[in-house]
Amino acid sequence: MKKVIYDCDNTMGLDNRDIDDGLALVYLVENKDVELLGVCTTYANDSLEYVHKQTLELVEGLSINLNVYKGRGKFEMNDYTGFGYKRFEDDGNFESNEAAKFIVEMANKYPNEIDLLATGSMQNLYDAYMIDNEIGEKLNSVVLMGGITGDLYFGDKIMKELNFSVCPKGAEVAIKKYKNVSILTGNRCMDVEFGINELDKVKALGNNIKNEFIINKIEKWTREFKEKYNYDSIVLWDVIAAIYLMNPDMFRDDFMSVVSTEEDLFEGRFVEGESATRVNIPIVLDDKKINDEMIKVVFER
Ligand SMILES: [Ca+2]
């Protein structure tokens, strides 16, 4: 059993917003090898208020007993697919961050036992570090979804990085001050497409299906994504990070020395160079197996 804390910017249920955090949450909830200690909310896909509300709604809909801890940070998302957002200056009040306090509390209660999966802004990891400078030494591992090593193309359109860029100082802390860090980058996740064939596999489960309500959410986001990017498949970014956490054997380790500064991370960019900061950037071995694993755990009764 892995003790997991999931830190996310879930917007499942909102129009024109990605659904991958919600799907990753369901994947963790349904995974028998996960003891999910709690869910933390942060901004990125949308404001903290919207993310928190959607996450409470999702947890309630799943009829499970799971605490949701609210993060911190003023942020507005105005145009998701056009990357029109507004970030406000940090008021520095990290001690008010319930999510960060929860992460620190659990890390002290279960030293070196907790795996932290973070798939939104890195604000809560930043605040946890501000509360306890030793936090990085007290976790077993950290798995992040975010960052790019080159432009992300869907057809002829470029998708910008979101998770690291909305809180670059948090991204820098997450990369440099935590240990055993693995990062599922945008570029490495892009090869795992989820399209009509994968959806047909879900539907083919027939009477053996569970969490059927998610099918509509996937179909809706696929339509919205198609409208913006003129692309037929979607990528389940955060789910891939959750699958890495639980099945590292489905990936190949690839360590990289990172010299990215806060300025580079403002665009979510990884810069390789001489550095003591080494992070793992896992490579997917077989994209079909990743999608099959998600379908099996999330949908198969
Ligand atoms: Ca996310």
Would you write up a description of this structure?
The structure is a single chain. The chain is an alpha/beta fold and about 300 residues long. It has a single domain (about 1-300), classed as Alpha-Beta Complex (Inosine-uridine Nucleoside N-ribohydrolase, Chain A), CATH 3.90.245.10. The chain is built from 12 helices and 16 strands. It has helices at about 20-30, 50-60, 100-110, 125-130, 135-140, 170-175, 185-190, 195-205, 215-230, 235-245, 260-265, 285-300, and strands at about 1-10, 35-40, 70, 75-80, 85, 115-120, 140-145, 150-155, 155-160, 180-185, 195, 235, 250, 255, 280, 285. The strands form 6 sheets. A 6-stranded parallel β-sheet has the order 3-2-1-6-7-10, with helices on both faces. A hairpin with a 2-residue loop joins β8 (about 150-155) and β9. α1 (about 20-30) runs parallel beside α10, α3 crosses α4 (about 125-130) and α4 crosses α6 (about 170-175). The longest helix is centred in the last third of the chain and has 17 residues, at about 215-230. It is globular, with a radius of gyration of 18 Å. Bound molecules: calcium ion (CA). The site of calcium ion has 8 residues, from α1.
Order of adjacent strands in the largest pleated sheet: 3-2-1-6-7-10
- Specify the CATH homologous superfamily: Ribonucleoside hydrolase-like
Please estimate the helix content: 25-40%
Biggest pleated-sheet summary: 6 strands, parallel
Using brief descriptors, characterize the structure shown:
single chain; 301 residues; alpha/beta; Inosine-uridine Nucleoside N-ribohydrolase, Chain A; 6-stranded parallel sheet; two-stranded antiparallel sheet; 12 helices; 16 strands; globular; binds calcium ion
